[in-house]
Design goal:
Blueprint (H helix, E strand, L loop, with lengths): L8 E5 L5 E13 L13 E7 L30 H6 L1
Antiparallel strand pairs: 1-2, 2-3
């Protein structure tokens, strides 16, 4: 039971105190809309990160359906007290 690349996330701390977590290794490549980007013949694309997200029932959402601005992707850090440290 070791850690692997599936366990690596990029943590971003937002101004309002929320944190988001994106997969370091998984993302989706999406083409830019027509007219955006450069004028060369190849179509430009961007990589969209997959974020950790939970739905209203507490179940995980699929990474490719999440965005950093979704409410379900914003997490509030919690300070642990002594009782919580005993559980960990």
């Amino acid at each position: 039971e070791g850690f692997n690349k599936e366990c690596e996330f990029v943590e971003r701390i937002h101004e309002l105190g929320y944190n988001t977590y994106a997969s370091r290794h998984h993302s989706t490549e999406q083409p830019l809309p027509a007219g955006a980007g450069s004028n060369n013949k190849r179509r430009a694309s961007i990589r969209r990160q997959w974020y950790v997200s939970i739905n209203g029932k507490g179940r995980p959402r699929r990474g490719f359906k999440t965005r950093s601005t979704d409410k379900a992707s914003l997490f509030l850090p919690r300070v642990l007290d002594n009782k919580d440290h005993e559980m960990v």
